[in-house]
């Protein structure tokens, strides 16, 4: 199968890391379908988009089924995420349910919709976005737990899908400054952000394109002997101590 026949779904492909991933895959020659609450404010001849709230499990499954009925999906990149930063005493049941749906449920729905065409082609790439916070971070009880769970989920899928030529890998970003998620926590220009950058071994905050390049690597047909792996794109933060 040539790159010209690749169609990738990118959840949260409208802004930030998701937009960088979508742009990177478009540059690689893929058709890309973005799923997000808002349409991208940019366009490309091979970019399509669907507006859907991925917190809504029924709506997510319906959109995924509609796409799978129209095109053969070869790649799924589940990037959409949310933090819900709270101390342990403040965590509510709704937070648990929401992030479980967003990080697990939506990813499962997208993968299940894509599997028939992937299995028929005996080729597929699934890339899930986790986080350095999977290793632990203050005020991240539900976020860290679900992002850590993504790693276990990917390893399980990798074992199940390897016989069909489908690889499943994880990219785990560290602090990525040019995103709405980062800006919801702190300004990239703040003293706090500058201190965070200094605490990272490589001495800087990440960029969305840093993550997109890792996703492009795992998505490539040349990455056909790599599955069940997690790549931390974090400037060394996963092996050192950072303050967020």
Automatic annotation (TrEMBL):
InterPro entries per record: NAD(P)-bd_dom_sf, Sc_DH/Rdtase_CS, SDR_fam
Molecular function GO labels: oxidoreductase activity, acting on the CH-OH group of donors, NAD or NADP as acceptor
GO biological process: fatty acid elongation
Pfam families from the UniProt entry: adh_short_C2
Superkingdom to which the source organism belongs: Bacteria
Family note: Belongs to the short-chain dehydrogenases/reductases (SDR) family.
The name this protein goes by in its record: SDR family oxidoreductase
Organism of provenance: Bradyrhizobium septentrionale
């Amino acid at each position: 199968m040539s790159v010209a026949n690749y169609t990738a779904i990118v959840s949260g492909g409208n802004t930030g890391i998701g937009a960088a991933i979508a742009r990177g895959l478009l540059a690689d020659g893929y058709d890309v379908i973005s799923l997000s609450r808002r349409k991208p404010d940019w366009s490309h001849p091979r970019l399509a988009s669907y507006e859907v709230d991925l917190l809504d499990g029924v709506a997510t499954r319906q959109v995924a089924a509609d796409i799978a009925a129209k095109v053969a999906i070869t790649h799924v990149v589940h990037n959409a995420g949310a933090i819900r930063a709270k101390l342990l005493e403040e965590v509510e049941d709704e937070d648990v349910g929401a992030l479980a749906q967003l990080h697990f449920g939506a990813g499962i729905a997208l993968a299940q919709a894509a599997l028939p065409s992937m299995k028929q082609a005996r080729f597929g790439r699934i890339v899930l976005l986790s986080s350095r916070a999977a290793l632990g971070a203050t005020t991240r009880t539900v976020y860290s737990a679900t992002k850590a769970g993504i790693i276990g989920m990917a390893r399980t899928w990798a074992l199940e899908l390897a016989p069909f030529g489908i690889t499943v890998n994880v990219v785990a970003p560290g602090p990525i400054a040019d995103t709405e998620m980062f800006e919801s926590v702190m300004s990239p220009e703040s003293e706090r952000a500058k201190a965070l950058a200094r605490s990272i071994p490589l001495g800087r905050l990440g960029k969305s394109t840093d993550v997109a390049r890792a996703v492009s690597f795992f998505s490539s047909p040349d990455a056909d002997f790599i599955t069940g792996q997690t790549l931390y794109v974090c400037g060394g933060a996963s092996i050192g101590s950072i303050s967020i």
